[in-house]
């Protein structure tokens, strides 16, 4: 007897889209470009929400002894702010850009698994909205974005907020894993026959390596999330020390995902910068092979440094010493990249577009974030500064000054390709300067606050701590500047999208394949893919007498 | 406090080992025509083998130092074999076309087998050594407790170390074969090394973090290897052993992978095939 029942399938199982306009087209779309755009809108939506949460946090901390919001709501705010910005803003924005651009960059017409692509997006979307539904279901999660046990267990977090956090992140994690699998498979199987793997544009190479990182890291997080869900829903005790579990085990699960996640968010931004800087310097990337190989080194080392997030849990000096060494070591390949980008700028014919300016801001602020990160690899400094505002400053220099600046550089760079329209450079410069100055006002002083001993996540502080109050006020004023900058950016988007499409195919005289398509590209990306013999195919076409070194 | 006298006492250095090492190096220099870099690789290989087998460092294991055993394993399984293969000229009979052992002609024939063999040797060799140490010192190492008259004491440690070196050569062969055309493709080599990295990470993780589950006694000073010239508590010793395998062990393969990639990025299949044709002529 067969174990399976053969169900006859009808010929028309799914509704067909008969129009090229309307909501159904977008909701049912499996086109990589539409999904990429939807990822970007989703990221922007949650960026506004996460930004408003940040403004409330800063308003609460602007002066001492403040009770603008309740302590309980404050806990929910900082938890949701961190979770939102990492999982619902940076991840979708980077995945969105990659979803849109990877097929175009490698001369393909689609991703390898279009339906999985749609599934990944909708999982991310569902996970995000589910997490926010918790505000209407008894309270949002309030145990911090890394949700440490046993605080996050039922005994200490009795509302359902943490459950929404767990299920929401499991869903977004599934979406990310699907996206990672799709990127790797697409790059391996759908490249134009001319493009060997060592000819990939750096953005595509970084996304390729990032795909493996996602595939290795997110299952660790999801395993931990499921275990905690079982703890909370079925009275297990994986992470409850009082009944034989281990709270430290949660930290191992979270950070063995969490540190690779830092690079999952950084590598695509590195890829964007590696595209933007050469184009606006009119130079080839300096040392392609070092930029690309150091990416692999980062990916491999990323899984051997997570314990530096846990120096304060009481491990021995032997273990701490080795993790300190490996944490410092991972700074080397990142430093190599910075040198390569500076080398690319050197003697270049630099065009200071908004995209390029964001790339330069990235170089400066990400380097500051990297240096403060290296200081955390020194165990006694980590012991002194852990859980202070120094950590808050560091993480924002990496994720906002690094990844988000990279995303902005990418948005301004690829916006003409994606929409067929140019974002206003004038408004863009307002956005840039307000945001970069505001950012440094907000977070540079937080290093000092951390050194002065201000713990992260405190609801308020005594107003007699005069210096704390001054620095917090500066920080809040900086946040206001960033808020205004984002308002300018949104206005820029709004007025630009109302303009007619005027962008030519290759407005920046760039060299990678996506610029060979129309702006925006047609539904079928390429009727005919140009021949590719080097890493800069459009340069070769424009300069037949002076082509790059042939690689195939 | 580290006892430096132990390391400078002549009796602790094997004189026979020094003579043998010099003879081997002299024979290599006399009979094989190699590049300067290959000569350097060979000399370093012999020095590493001497340090592993005949120096005071080798004698330290008599004090029950688990971390020392791990260091020997890393040198013999992971470092010395790569240097050894890089020191061998490609026209050596074992690697030339004249050598008729078909399995060695193409890496696809043997790389999986050699990968598994070396992984089994790495894990097996480690636990056998831990067992021998446990039997000799009466302590629990990596959760292994062996008695003084256990069967495990009949296995000579030098046999385990020699087998590790051979397994290391077999493991490294698909990636560092002296004949370039018989190596795995660059990206396959990176995956080969990365998966090995996972294997040594898991061993390192197990050894390092199982230390904390030992009894409290192992962290007390009474149970330090006090007589050892390098005194460590049992717990610190075991953690050091695990971390040595995990961090430097992995970094070695990361560096090898990056070095392979750096030459692959500039590779042009057309030029490569033209060079091959030219060489064949």
From TrEMBL, chain A:
<dbReference type="GO" id="GO:0006119">
    <property type="term" value="P:oxidative phosphorylation"/>
</dbReference>
<keyword id="KW-0472">Membrane</keyword>
<feature type="transmembrane region" description="Helical">
    <location>
        <begin position="202"/>
        <end position="230"/>
    </location>
</feature>
<feature type="transmembrane region" description="Helical">
    <location>
        <begin position="164"/>
        <end position="190"/>
    </location>
</feature>
<keyword id="KW-0186">Copper</keyword>
<keyword id="KW-1133">Transmembrane helix</keyword>
<keyword id="KW-0349">Heme</keyword>
<feature type="transmembrane region" description="Helical">
    <location>
        <begin position="319"/>
        <end position="342"/>
    </location>
</feature>
<keyword id="KW-0813">Transport</keyword>
<feature type="transmembrane region" description="Helical">
    <location>
        <begin position="39"/>
        <end position="63"/>
    </location>
</feature>
<keyword id="KW-0249">Electron transport</keyword>
<feature type="transmembrane region" description="Helical">
    <location>
        <begin position="287"/>
        <end position="307"/>
    </location>
</feature>
<feature type="transmembrane region" description="Helical">
    <location>
        <begin position="83"/>
        <end position="106"/>
    </location>
</feature>
<dbReference type="GO" id="GO:0046872">
    <property type="term" value="F:metal ion binding"/>
</dbReference>
<dbReference type="GO" id="GO:0004129">
    <property type="term" value="F:cytochrome-c oxidase activity"/>
</dbReference>
<dbReference type="InterPro" id="IPR000883">
    <property type="entry name" value="Cyt_C_Oxase_1"/>
</dbReference>
<keyword id="KW-0679">Respiratory chain</keyword>
<feature type="transmembrane region" description="Helical">
    <location>
        <begin position="391"/>
        <end position="415"/>
    </location>
</feature>
<keyword id="KW-1003">Cell membrane</keyword>
<feature type="transmembrane region" description="Helical">
    <location>
        <begin position="427"/>
        <end position="450"/>
    </location>
</feature>
<dbReference type="InterPro" id="IPR014241">
    <property type="entry name" value="Cyt_c_oxidase_su1_bac"/>
</dbReference>
<keyword id="KW-0812">Transmembrane</keyword>
From TrEMBL, chain B:
<protein>
    <submittedName>
        <fullName>Uncharacterized protein</fullName>
    </submittedName>
</protein>
């Amino acid at each position: 007897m067969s174990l399976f029942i053969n169900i006859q399938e009808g010929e028309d199982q799914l509704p067909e889209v008969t129009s090229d306009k309307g909501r159904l087209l977008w909701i049912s779309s499996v086109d990589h470009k539409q999904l990429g755009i939807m990822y970007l809108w989703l990221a922007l939506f949650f960026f506004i929400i996460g930004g408003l949460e940040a403004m409330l946090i800063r308003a609460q901390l602007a002066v001492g002894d403040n009770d603008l919001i309740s302590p309980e709501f404050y806990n929910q705010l900082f938890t949701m702010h961190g979770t939102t910005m990492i999982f619902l803003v940076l991840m979708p924005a980077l995945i969105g850009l990659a979803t849109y651009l990877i097929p175009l960059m490698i001369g393909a017409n689609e991703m390898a698994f279009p339906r999985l692509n749609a599934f990944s997006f909708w999982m991310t979307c569902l996970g995000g909205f589910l997490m926010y539904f918790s505000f209407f279901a008894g309270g949002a999660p309030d145990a911090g974005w890394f949700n440490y046990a046993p605080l996050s267990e039922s005994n200490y977090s009795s509302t359902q907020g943490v459950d929404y956090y767990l299920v929401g992140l499991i869903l977004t994690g599934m979406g990310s894993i699907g996206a990672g699998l799709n990127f790797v498979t697409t790059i391996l199987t759908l490249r134009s026959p001319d493009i060997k793997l060592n000819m990939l544009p750096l953005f595509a190479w970084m996304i390729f390596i990032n795909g493996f990182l996602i595939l290795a890291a997110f299952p660790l997080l999801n395993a931990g999330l499921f275990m905690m869900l079982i703890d909370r829903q079925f009275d297990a005790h994986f992470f409850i020390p009082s009944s034989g579990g281990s709270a430290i085990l949660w930290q191992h699960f979270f950070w063995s995902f969490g540190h690779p996640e830092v690079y999952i968010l950084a590598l695509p931004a590195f890829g964007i910068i590696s595209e933007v800087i050469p184009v606006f310097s009119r130079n080839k990337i300096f040392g392609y092979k070092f930029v690309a190989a150091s990416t692999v080194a980062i990916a491999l080392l990323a899984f051997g440094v997570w314990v530096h997030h846990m120096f304060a849990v009481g491990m021995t000096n032997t273990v701490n010493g080795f993790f300190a060494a490996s944490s410092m070591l991972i700074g080397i390949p990142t430093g190599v990249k910075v040198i390569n980008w500076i080398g690319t700028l050197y003697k270049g014919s630099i065009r200071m577009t908004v995209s390029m300016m964001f790339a330069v801001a990235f170089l400066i602020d990400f380097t500051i974030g990297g240096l403060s990160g290296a200081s955390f690899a020194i165990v006694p400094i980590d012991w002194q500064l852990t859980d202070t505002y120094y950590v808050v400053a560091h993480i924002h220099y990496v994720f906002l000054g690094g990844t988000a600046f990279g995303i902005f550089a990418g948005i301004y760079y690829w916006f003409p390709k994606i929409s067929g329209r140019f974002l206003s450079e004038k408004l863009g410069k307002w956005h840039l300067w307000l945001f970069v100055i505001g950012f440094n006002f907000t977070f540079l002083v937080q290093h000092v606050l951390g050194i002065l001993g201000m713990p992260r996540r405190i609801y308020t502080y005594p107003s007699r701590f005069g210096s704390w109050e001054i620095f917090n006020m500066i920080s809040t004023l900086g946040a206001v500047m960033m808020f205004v900058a984002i308002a300018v950016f949104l206005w820029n988007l709004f007025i630009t999208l109302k303009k007619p499409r005027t962008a030519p195919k290759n407005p920046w005289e760039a060299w990678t394949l996506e610029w060979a398509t129309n702006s925006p590209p047609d539904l079928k990306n390429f009727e005919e893919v140009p021949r590719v013999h080097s890493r800069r195919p459009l340069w070769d076409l424009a300069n037949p007498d002076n082509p790059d070194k042939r690689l195939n | 406090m580290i006892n430096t006298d132990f390391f400078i006492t002549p009796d602790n250095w094997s004189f026979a080992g020094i003579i043998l090492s010099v003879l081997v190096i002299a024979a290599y220099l006399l009979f094989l025509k190699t590049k300067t870099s290959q000569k350097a690789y060979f000399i370093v290989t012999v020095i590493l083998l001497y340090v592993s087998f005949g120096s005071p460092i080798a004698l330290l294991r008599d004090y029950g130092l688990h971390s020392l055993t791990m260091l020997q394993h890393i040198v013999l399984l992971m470092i010395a074999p790569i240097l050894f293969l890089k020191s061998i000229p490609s026209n050596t009979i074992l690697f030339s076309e004249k050598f008729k052992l078909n399995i060695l002609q193409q890496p696809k024939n043997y790389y999986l087998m050699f990968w598994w063999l070396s992984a089994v040797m790495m894990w097996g060799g480690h636990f056998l050594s831990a067992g021998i140490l446990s039997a000799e010192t009466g302590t629990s190492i990596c959760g292994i407790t062996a008695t003084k008259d256990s069967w495990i004491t009949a296995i000579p440690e030098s046999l385990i170390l020699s087998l590790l070196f051979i397994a290391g050569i077999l493991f490294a062969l698909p990636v560092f074969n002296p004949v370039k055309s018989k190596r795995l493709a660059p990206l396959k080599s990176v995956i080969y090394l990365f998966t090995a990295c996972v294997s040594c990470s898991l061993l390192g993780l197990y050894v390092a973090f199982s230390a904390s589950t030992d009894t409290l006694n192992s962290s007390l000073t009474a149970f330090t290897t006090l007589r050892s010239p390098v005194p460590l508590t049992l717990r610190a010793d075991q953690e050091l052993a695990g971390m040595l395998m995990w961090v430097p062990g992995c970094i070695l393969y990361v560096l090898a992978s990056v070095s392979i990639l750096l030459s692959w990025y500039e590779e042009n299949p057309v030029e490569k095939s033209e060079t091959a044709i030219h060489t064949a002529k």
